[in-house]
Specification:
Blueprint lengths: L10 H22 L8 H29 L7 H35 L8 H30 L2
Helix pairs in contact: 1-2, 1-4, 2-3, 2-4, 3-4
Length: about 150
């Protein structure tokens, strides 16, 4: 397998992991800072999904940093398939949570017109950050999957 930027053990892969982590932490922090997120199941699911995304991205960022420091290639078939499966699962969970949160946010804002009573700006910000984190994980997944398919 060729070392393509964005693959495990490359600087591009590390950048994708760090962007996943930063946006997931931002979504988690913003949503957890509201006092009433636990009253809505979709918002609780967003907190759980972004927590999973944070852990996954941080662990793989540490592996990428180690691989870059010791100049080791992570293009082993088993490593790439585990990264691809993990990215696929994490991005699917985050995407589902972001979609559910977006639906509730639209319901609160447009249909119920009760943004004055709720934290709509925080809900919208957390949802947007979760979508961005999901799309970075999806990019990572697609690069790993393409690498496996082109073997």
């Amino acid at each position: 397998m060729k070392d393509i930027q964005g693959m495990p053990g490359t600087k591009g892969g590390l950048a994708l992991r760090l962007s996943q982590f930063i946006f997931a932490v931002a979504a988690l922090s913003v949503m957890a800072s509201t006092s009433d997120f636990a009253s809505v199941t979709a918002f609780t699911y967003l907190v759980v999904a972004t927590s999973l995304q944070c852990l996954w991205s941080l662990c793989l960022a540490i592996v990428d940093i180690y691989a870059l420091l010791v100049m080791r290639s992570l293009q082993n078939y088993r490593i790439v398939i585990s990264f691809a499966v993990g990215d696929g699962i994490a991005s699917t969970f985050t995407f589902a949570a972001a979609c559910a949160s977006a639906g509730i946010t639209v319901l609160i804002d447009n249909d119920l017109n009760s943004c004055d009573d709720n934290h709509c700006l925080q809900f919208e910000t957390a949802t947007a950050m979760a979508f961005i984190s999901c799309f970075s994980a999806l990019t990572s997944f697609l690069l790993n999957f393409w690498s496996l398919a082109s073997r």
